[in-house]
Design a protein that fits this description.
14 helices; six-stranded parallel sheet; 2 domains; 17% strand; 12 strands; Rossmann fold; alpha/beta; globular
Protein backbone atom coordinates (compact mmCIF):
# COMPACT_ATOMS: atom_id res chain seq x y z
CA UNK A 1 0.00 0.00 0.00
CA UNK A 2 1.25 3.51 -0.84
CA UNK A 3 0.12 6.53 1.19
CA UNK A 4 0.80 10.17 0.36
CA UNK A 5 0.67 12.83 3.09
CA UNK A 6 0.63 16.53 2.24
CA UNK A 7 1.29 19.35 4.72
CA UNK A 8 2.86 22.55 3.43
CA UNK A 9 3.94 25.79 5.09
CA UNK A 10 4.24 26.30 8.85
CA UNK A 11 6.64 24.47 11.20
CA UNK A 12 4.15 24.04 14.03
CA UNK A 13 1.47 22.67 11.71
CA UNK A 14 3.90 20.05 10.40
CA UNK A 15 4.79 19.09 13.98
CA UNK A 16 1.09 18.61 14.65
CA UNK A 17 0.87 15.99 11.86
CA UNK A 18 3.55 13.75 13.38
CA UNK A 19 1.12 11.89 15.67
CA UNK A 20 -0.93 11.07 12.55
CA UNK A 21 2.19 9.76 10.80
CA UNK A 22 2.82 7.35 13.68
CA UNK A 23 -0.82 6.29 13.76
CA UNK A 24 -0.90 5.56 10.03
CA UNK A 25 2.29 3.53 10.34
CA UNK A 26 0.76 1.56 13.23
CA UNK A 27 -2.47 0.97 11.29
CA UNK A 28 -0.70 0.07 8.03
CA UNK A 29 2.74 -1.22 9.12
CA UNK A 30 3.72 -2.39 5.63
CA UNK A 31 2.65 0.76 3.84
CA UNK A 32 5.07 3.03 1.99
CA UNK A 33 4.48 6.51 3.49
CA UNK A 34 5.53 9.59 1.49
CA UNK A 35 5.34 13.12 2.93
CA UNK A 36 5.38 16.37 0.94
CA UNK A 37 6.64 19.42 2.84
CA UNK A 38 8.13 22.82 2.08
CA UNK A 39 11.80 23.53 2.95
CA UNK A 40 11.31 25.53 6.17
CA UNK A 41 9.59 22.67 7.99
CA UNK A 42 11.36 19.76 6.26
CA UNK A 43 13.73 19.05 9.20
CA UNK A 44 10.71 18.18 11.36
CA UNK A 45 9.96 15.06 9.33
CA UNK A 46 13.32 14.42 7.64
CA UNK A 47 14.36 11.76 10.17
CA UNK A 48 10.94 10.34 10.96
CA UNK A 49 11.34 6.54 11.10
CA UNK A 50 7.75 5.96 9.98
CA UNK A 51 8.27 7.70 6.64
CA UNK A 52 9.79 5.93 3.66
CA UNK A 53 10.19 9.15 1.66
CA UNK A 54 10.15 12.90 2.28
CA UNK A 55 9.65 15.15 -0.74
CA UNK A 56 10.76 18.75 -0.20
CA UNK A 57 8.78 21.02 -2.51
CA UNK A 58 10.07 24.62 -2.59
CA UNK A 59 7.40 27.25 -3.10
CA UNK A 60 8.10 29.23 -6.27
CA UNK A 61 6.09 31.96 -7.95
CA UNK A 62 5.06 32.47 -11.53
CA UNK A 63 5.57 30.13 -14.46
CA UNK A 64 8.62 28.52 -12.86
CA UNK A 65 6.59 27.48 -9.83
CA UNK A 66 3.75 26.12 -11.97
CA UNK A 67 6.14 24.04 -14.07
CA UNK A 68 7.86 22.69 -10.95
CA UNK A 69 4.53 21.65 -9.45
CA UNK A 70 3.43 19.97 -12.67
CA UNK A 71 6.71 18.03 -12.73
CA UNK A 72 6.14 17.00 -9.11
CA UNK A 73 2.59 15.96 -9.95
CA UNK A 74 3.87 13.70 -12.75
CA UNK A 75 6.35 12.17 -10.31
CA UNK A 76 3.56 11.50 -7.83
CA UNK A 77 1.20 10.01 -10.40
CA UNK A 78 3.88 7.52 -11.48
CA UNK A 79 3.98 6.18 -7.90
CA UNK A 80 0.30 5.18 -8.06
CA UNK A 81 -0.72 6.02 -4.52
CA UNK A 82 -3.61 4.13 -2.97
CA UNK A 83 -4.39 6.89 -0.47
CA UNK A 84 -3.57 10.60 -0.21
CA UNK A 85 -4.37 12.75 2.81
CA UNK A 86 -4.16 16.53 2.53
CA UNK A 87 -3.59 17.95 6.03
CA UNK A 88 -3.23 21.47 4.65
CA UNK A 89 -6.20 22.27 2.42
CA UNK A 90 -4.57 25.24 0.70
CA UNK A 91 -4.76 25.74 -3.08
CA UNK A 92 -1.32 24.26 -3.79
CA UNK A 93 -1.71 21.32 -1.41
CA UNK A 94 -5.15 20.38 -2.73
CA UNK A 95 -3.95 20.63 -6.33
CA UNK A 96 -0.98 18.35 -5.68
CA UNK A 97 -3.26 15.89 -3.89
CA UNK A 98 -5.64 15.81 -6.86
CA UNK A 99 -2.89 15.58 -9.46
CA UNK A 100 -1.30 12.68 -7.59
CA UNK A 101 -4.10 10.54 -8.97
CA UNK A 102 -4.39 8.61 -5.71
CA UNK A 103 -7.33 6.20 -5.66
CA UNK A 104 -8.62 7.69 -2.40
CA UNK A 105 -8.03 11.36 -1.66
CA UNK A 106 -9.06 12.66 1.77
CA UNK A 107 -9.24 16.38 2.53
CA UNK A 108 -11.29 19.16 4.05
CA UNK A 109 -14.58 20.19 2.48
CA UNK A 110 -13.42 23.66 1.44
CA UNK A 111 -15.44 25.77 -0.99
CA UNK A 112 -13.93 25.67 -4.46
CA UNK A 113 -11.52 22.82 -3.66
CA UNK A 114 -13.53 20.06 -2.04
CA UNK A 115 -14.19 18.47 -5.44
CA UNK A 116 -10.51 17.47 -5.63
CA UNK A 117 -11.03 14.82 -2.94
CA UNK A 118 -12.92 11.56 -3.08
CA UNK A 119 -13.73 11.91 0.63
CA UNK A 120 -14.37 15.27 2.26
CA UNK A 121 -14.24 16.11 5.96
CA UNK A 122 -16.05 19.11 7.41
CA UNK A 123 -13.80 21.80 8.90
CA UNK A 124 -15.62 24.53 10.87
CA UNK A 125 -14.43 28.05 10.08
CA UNK A 126 -14.61 29.34 13.65
CA UNK A 127 -11.59 29.24 15.99
CA UNK A 128 -12.59 26.38 18.28
CA UNK A 129 -11.00 25.50 21.61
CA UNK A 130 -9.94 22.15 20.20
CA UNK A 131 -6.37 21.03 19.64
CA UNK A 132 -4.92 21.22 16.12
CA UNK A 133 -3.77 17.61 16.39
CA UNK A 134 -7.38 16.56 16.91
CA UNK A 135 -8.60 18.81 14.10
CA UNK A 136 -6.18 17.19 11.66
CA UNK A 137 -6.98 13.75 13.07
CA UNK A 138 -10.53 14.12 11.73
CA UNK A 139 -9.02 13.20 8.35
CA UNK A 140 -7.74 9.91 9.78
CA UNK A 141 -11.19 8.99 11.04
CA UNK A 142 -12.13 8.61 7.36
CA UNK A 143 -9.70 5.68 7.10
CA UNK A 144 -10.82 4.02 10.33
CA UNK A 145 -8.24 5.26 12.85
CA UNK A 146 -9.47 5.85 16.40
CA UNK A 147 -9.04 9.23 18.16
CA UNK A 148 -5.55 10.01 19.49
CA UNK A 149 -4.13 10.26 22.98
CA UNK A 150 -1.16 12.37 24.00
CA UNK A 151 0.63 9.44 25.55
CA UNK A 152 -0.03 7.04 22.68
CA UNK A 153 0.73 9.42 19.83
CA UNK A 154 2.74 12.47 20.97
CA UNK A 155 4.34 14.95 18.57
CA UNK A 156 7.71 13.76 17.33
CA UNK A 157 10.91 15.03 15.79
CA UNK A 158 13.92 12.75 15.61
CA UNK A 159 16.96 14.06 17.51
CA UNK A 160 20.33 13.50 15.85
CA UNK A 161 22.92 12.47 18.50
CA UNK A 162 25.71 13.96 16.37
CA UNK A 163 23.95 17.31 16.17
CA UNK A 164 23.27 17.24 19.91
CA UNK A 165 26.95 16.60 20.59
CA UNK A 166 27.94 19.48 18.32
CA UNK A 167 25.50 21.76 20.16
CA UNK A 168 27.04 20.70 23.49
CA UNK A 169 30.48 21.64 22.15
CA UNK A 170 29.10 24.97 20.99
CA UNK A 171 27.73 25.71 24.45
CA UNK A 172 31.08 24.84 26.00
CA UNK A 173 32.81 27.22 23.59
CA UNK A 174 30.46 29.98 24.80
CA UNK A 175 31.30 29.41 28.45
CA UNK A 176 28.47 27.07 29.49
CA UNK A 177 29.92 24.32 31.73
CA UNK A 178 28.58 20.77 31.75
CA UNK A 179 27.32 21.40 35.28
CA UNK A 180 25.36 24.49 34.25
CA UNK A 181 21.59 24.35 33.95
CA UNK A 182 20.62 25.54 30.48
CA UNK A 183 17.41 27.52 30.09
CA UNK A 184 16.39 28.17 26.49
CA UNK A 185 14.44 31.38 25.97
CA UNK A 186 13.09 31.92 22.45
CA UNK A 187 12.18 35.56 22.00
CA UNK A 188 10.76 35.81 18.48
CA UNK A 189 7.60 34.72 16.70
CA UNK A 190 6.23 34.66 13.17
CA UNK A 191 4.14 37.81 13.60
CA UNK A 192 3.71 40.71 16.08
CA UNK A 193 0.53 39.20 17.50
CA UNK A 194 2.61 36.44 19.12
CA UNK A 195 5.64 38.52 20.14
CA UNK A 196 5.96 39.17 23.87
CA UNK A 197 7.76 42.48 24.62
CA UNK A 198 11.56 42.30 24.57
CA UNK A 199 11.75 44.18 27.88
CA UNK A 200 9.65 41.46 29.51
CA UNK A 201 11.91 38.70 28.20
CA UNK A 202 15.02 40.53 29.44
CA UNK A 203 13.49 40.96 32.89
CA UNK A 204 12.71 37.25 33.14
CA UNK A 205 16.19 36.26 31.96
CA UNK A 206 17.90 38.57 34.45
CA UNK A 207 15.70 37.47 37.35
CA UNK A 208 16.33 33.77 36.76
CA UNK A 209 20.06 34.28 36.36
CA UNK A 210 20.19 36.36 39.55
CA UNK A 211 18.35 33.72 41.58
CA UNK A 212 20.25 30.67 40.31
CA UNK A 213 24.03 30.77 40.18
CA UNK A 214 24.14 27.64 38.02
CA UNK A 215 21.58 28.91 35.47
CA UNK A 216 22.67 29.85 31.95
CA UNK A 217 19.92 31.57 29.99
CA UNK A 218 20.43 30.95 26.29
CA UNK A 219 18.51 33.50 24.20
CA UNK A 220 17.47 32.35 20.73
CA UNK A 221 15.45 33.86 17.90
CA UNK A 222 14.53 33.39 14.28
CA UNK A 223 17.02 34.59 11.65
CA UNK A 224 15.04 37.76 10.93
CA UNK A 225 14.99 38.83 14.59
CA UNK A 226 18.61 38.53 15.61
CA UNK A 227 18.57 42.22 16.54
CA UNK A 228 15.66 41.65 18.93
CA UNK A 229 17.55 38.81 20.61
CA UNK A 230 20.61 41.03 20.95
CA UNK A 231 18.50 43.71 22.65
CA UNK A 232 17.07 41.18 25.09
CA UNK A 233 20.57 39.92 25.91
CA UNK A 234 22.02 43.42 26.39
CA UNK A 235 19.12 44.59 28.56
CA UNK A 236 19.24 41.44 30.72
CA UNK A 237 22.98 41.75 31.25
CA UNK A 238 22.63 45.36 32.34
CA UNK A 239 20.36 44.21 35.17
CA UNK A 240 23.01 41.87 36.58
CA UNK A 241 26.32 42.34 38.39
CA UNK A 242 29.25 42.22 35.99
CA UNK A 243 30.34 38.77 37.16
CA UNK A 244 26.95 37.25 36.31
CA UNK A 245 26.42 38.81 32.90
CA UNK A 246 28.10 35.98 31.01
CA UNK A 247 25.31 33.65 32.11
CA UNK A 248 22.99 35.42 29.68
CA UNK A 249 24.33 33.57 26.67
CA UNK A 250 24.38 34.56 23.01
CA UNK A 251 25.13 31.58 20.78
CA UNK A 252 23.85 32.87 17.46
CA UNK A 253 21.25 31.19 15.29
CA UNK A 254 20.22 27.54 15.61
CA UNK A 255 18.77 25.45 12.79
CA UNK A 256 15.68 23.39 13.59
CA UNK A 257 17.82 20.26 13.97
CA UNK A 258 20.20 22.13 16.29
CA UNK A 259 17.30 23.55 18.29
CA UNK A 260 15.96 20.01 18.73
CA UNK A 261 19.37 18.95 20.05
CA UNK A 262 19.61 22.03 22.25
CA UNK A 263 16.33 21.46 24.11
CA UNK A 264 17.49 17.94 24.98
CA UNK A 265 20.32 19.60 26.92
CA UNK A 266 18.08 22.14 28.66
CA UNK A 267 16.23 22.02 31.97
CA UNK A 268 13.61 24.56 30.84
CA UNK A 269 12.20 26.18 27.68
CA UNK A 270 10.44 29.56 27.72
CA UNK A 271 8.76 31.05 24.66
CA UNK A 272 5.63 32.08 22.83
CA UNK A 273 3.36 30.06 20.56
CA UNK A 274 5.75 29.57 17.64
CA UNK A 275 7.47 26.91 15.57
CA UNK A 276 10.39 26.57 18.01
CA UNK A 277 7.95 26.02 20.89
CA UNK A 278 6.47 23.09 19.01
CA UNK A 279 9.95 21.75 18.27
CA UNK A 280 10.64 21.89 22.01
CA UNK A 281 7.40 19.99 22.62
CA UNK A 282 8.87 16.98 20.79
CA UNK A 283 11.40 16.62 23.62
CA UNK A 284 10.90 16.03 27.34
CA UNK A 285 12.07 19.50 28.41
CA UNK A 286 9.76 21.30 30.89
CA UNK A 287 8.14 24.29 29.20
CA UNK A 288 6.62 27.69 29.96
CA UNK A 289 4.51 28.72 26.96
CA UNK A 290 3.04 32.20 26.41
CA UNK A 291 -0.22 32.58 24.48
CA UNK A 292 -1.60 35.79 23.01
CA UNK A 293 -4.22 35.57 20.25
CA UNK A 294 -4.06 31.76 20.21
CA UNK A 295 -5.38 29.33 22.79
CA UNK A 296 -3.50 26.63 24.72
CA UNK A 297 -6.48 24.39 24.03
CA UNK A 298 -5.54 24.57 20.33
CA UNK A 299 -1.75 24.46 20.41
CA UNK A 300 -0.26 23.51 23.77
CA UNK A 301 2.40 20.73 23.75
CA UNK A 302 0.78 17.50 22.56
CA UNK A 303 2.83 15.01 24.55
CA UNK A 304 2.79 12.88 27.70
CA UNK A 305 0.95 14.97 30.34
CA UNK A 306 3.46 13.82 32.98
CA UNK A 307 6.11 16.08 31.38
CA UNK A 308 5.94 19.41 33.23
CA UNK A 309 4.43 22.29 31.29
CA UNK A 310 2.75 25.57 32.21
CA UNK A 311 0.70 27.67 29.78
CA UNK A 312 0.24 31.37 30.50
CA UNK A 313 -2.53 33.38 28.88
CA UNK A 314 -4.67 36.47 29.45
CA UNK A 315 -8.26 35.38 29.90
CA UNK A 316 -11.50 37.35 29.71
CA UNK A 317 -10.72 39.36 26.58
CA UNK A 318 -13.66 39.53 24.13
CA UNK A 319 -11.26 39.90 21.19
CA UNK A 320 -9.46 36.63 21.93
CA UNK A 321 -8.85 34.36 20.08
CA UNK A 322 -8.46 36.31 16.85
CA UNK A 323 -7.44 35.70 13.25
CA UNK A 324 -4.20 37.71 13.73
CA UNK A 325 -4.91 40.18 10.94
CA UNK A 326 -5.88 43.27 12.93
CA UNK A 327 -5.51 43.92 16.66
CA UNK A 328 -8.85 45.52 17.51
CA UNK A 329 -7.65 47.27 20.72
CA UNK A 330 -4.39 48.16 18.96
CA UNK A 331 -2.07 47.32 21.87
CA UNK A 332 -1.73 43.52 21.64
CA UNK A 333 -3.06 43.35 25.18
CA UNK A 334 -3.50 39.58 25.06
CA UNK A 335 0.31 39.35 25.29
CA UNK A 336 1.34 42.65 26.84
CA UNK A 337 -0.79 41.96 29.91
CA UNK A 338 1.25 38.86 30.71
CA UNK A 339 3.75 40.08 33.30
CA UNK A 340 7.38 39.03 33.80
CA UNK A 341 6.47 38.09 37.36
CA UNK A 342 3.96 35.51 36.09
CA UNK A 343 6.55 33.94 33.82
CA UNK A 344 9.24 33.93 36.49
CA UNK A 345 6.85 32.29 38.94
CA UNK A 346 6.03 29.55 36.41
CA UNK A 347 9.72 29.04 35.63
CA UNK A 348 10.58 28.74 39.31
CA UNK A 349 7.88 26.14 39.85
CA UNK A 350 9.25 24.01 37.01
CA UNK A 351 12.86 24.47 38.09
CA UNK A 352 11.97 23.27 41.59
CA UNK A 353 10.31 20.18 40.13
CA UNK A 354 13.36 19.38 38.01
CA UNK A 355 15.75 19.89 40.89
Amino acid sequence: MKILLVRLRMIGDVVFTTPAIAALHARFPNAHLTYIVEPAAAPVVAGNPCLAEVIVAPRQSGVRGLLADLALARRLSRQRFDLAIDFHGGPRASLLTWLSGATRRVGYDIAGRGWMYTERVRRPRELRARHSVENQWDLLAAVGIAPPTRTGFPVQMAADPGVRSAVRDRLTAHGVPDTGRVIVMHVSASNPFRRWPAASFSRVAATIAARHADAYVLVTSGPSEADAAARVIDAARQQLPEGDRSRIVACGEFSLAELRGLVDLAVLYIGGDSGPMHIAATSRVPMVSLYGPTLPARSDPWRDPSIPHISIETTGLPCRPCDQRVCEPGDFRCLSRITPAEVVDAAERLLRRSG
